[in-house]
Design a protein that fits this description.
The protein is mainly beta. The chain is built from four helices and 25 strands.
Length: 435
């Protein structure tokens, strides 16, 4: 068997190594297995002293774990700003007249919350749609992420100091259709549930180039081309996939603990069930608990509000090692939401908020330079590390009452900083009916 045939057989064997067929279909495995289940191999006709074909395997933490990207997406799914599962119509009961009266002219916030309860026996049903087209992670464009792969056991002055540089384009879009139901158990206690249906599209293209730093013979490290130059220096790897299904279901209790004139204070807790398939990036892969405090001033027209919360998360495969099927803690988050809603006439409300969260000791990625072993060659690269960081968004929207107890919500969520996995602008459309 010739050296070239042996090298091709080796690469084919590596690419077809045992790997669960079902796992390959799942979106979370698309990035870690982009170059095959065993990582990035290039062709080689170099022979070892034993006469065996040289195994040209290259490594990078970007390939072996993809932890920061998958964890960033899981973090996004765990704390994506959802429309508040609370009615825009709030009431108090007038025992003298035996009727319910509207408490404010404003229809309330869209992505935040207010302290007012819905009212005993009242209910609301809402539907909303929002679509995220992520284009940055930690300020890096997802269209061009540079990653350097190094040879197994690199040694200066030998063929093992060759590297493979890659330019990676990752496209990820996530759409959510959320059904929410809110019910007034008492005049002060509300029970709400939100059920998201999530659709995710993931595409990745990697252009890999052999950088011959320690070799001059192209036969040592190359990408085989079926036509033309068989000792190719470049190869392109592509994968894409789509998944849809039920995401993580939210259940919430909110109790209006204080009501002094226009001032209201509410305490609550929100639980997240891991009903979304994390291997298809439809859910966070772990339960979560989020106690919260809401303070608002229910002015007749202008109503400011403030919400503080802390999100506890459990262990998720998306925060661990997917290929080894191990879990790790998904970062907890502290949340802050502050803003106002103002009634403009009887049919329109303007809502504006700053929505911020502090990710505690989360996975991060940053651009860095890779210095090759020859002491001269420098290539753009990324590095991974852990630290806490802030994700800050702005939100501006309108609530329109076309008639009766029906509301139409229009909202734009936009980023105010670069940390985390980000979409520049996320539109939202919703409708809500109270009864």
């Amino acid at each position: 068997m010739s050296a070239r045939v042996r090298s091709l057989v080796l690469v084919a064997a590596c690419a077809s190594a045992a790997f669960p067929a079902r796992a390959q279909e799942k979106l979370a495995y698309l990035l870690p297995t982009l170059y095959g289940p065993n990582g990035l191999f290039v062709n080689s006709e170099a022979l070892l002293p034993t006469g065996q074909t040289h195994s040209a395997h290259f490594n990078s933490s970007f390939q072996t774990s993809f932890g920061p990207f998958n964890t960033a997406l899981a973090t996004q799914l765990a704390a994506v700003p959802l429309p508040a599962p609370a009615s825009g119509f709030t009431y108090t009961y007038d025992a003298t007249l035996g009727v319910f009266n509207r408490t404010t002219q404003s229809y309330g916030p869209i992505l935040s919350d207010r302290a007012e309860a819905l009212g005993k026996g009242r209910a609301s049903l809402g539907f909303s749609y929002q679509r995220f087209s992520f284009d940055q992670i930690e300020g890096l464009s997802l269209d061009s992420i540079p990653v350097v792969f190094t040879h197994d056991n690199p040694v200066a002055g030998t063929g093992r100091d060759d590297v493979v540089t890659t330019s990676n384009s990752i496209g990820v879009e996530m759409a959510q259709f959320i059904t929410s139901f809110n019910y007034g158990v008492t005049d002060r206690l509300d029970l709400a549930v939100a059920i998201p249906v999530v659709a995710v599209d993931l595409r990745v293209t990697s252009i890999a180039s052999v950088q011959r730093i320690g070799t001059t013979n192209p036969a040592v490290h190359f990408f085989f081309q079926p036509t033309g130059d068989t000792f190719g220096s470049q190869a392109t790897f592509r994968r894409d996939g789509h998944a849809s299904g039920v995401g993580d279901i939210l259940l919430r209790l909110k109790y209006q603990a204080l009501k002094r004139g226009a001032l209201g204070v509410a305490l609550g807790v929100e639980g997240r069930a891991p009903t979304g398939d994390e291997k298809d990036l439809l859910g966070s892969g772990t339960p979560g608990v989020k106690p919260f405090l809401v303070v608002s001033n229910a002015g007749r027209h202008f109503s400011p509000h403030l919400k503080l919360a802390y999100q506890w998360n459990g262990e998720s495969r998306l925060a661990g090692d997917l290929l080894k099927d191990t879990k790790s803690d998904l970062a907890d988050q502290a949340l802050f939401e502050g803003g106002f809603d103002v009634g403009i006439g009887k049919k329109l409300t303007l809502a504006a908020d700053v929505i911020a969260r502090r990710v505690i000791d989360g996975e991060r990625i940053a651009e860095d330079d890779f210095h090759a072993l020859d002491g001269r060659s420098v290539f753009p690269n990324v590095r991974f590390f852990r630290s806490s960081y802030n994700i800050v968004n702005g939100s501006v929207g309108l609530k329109v009452n076309p008639g009766g107890n029906l509301l139409v919500d229009l909202n734009l969520l936009f980023k105010l900083n670069d940390s985390g996995l980000r979409d520049r602008v996320t539109p939202l459309f919703g409708i809500e009916y109270s009864f």
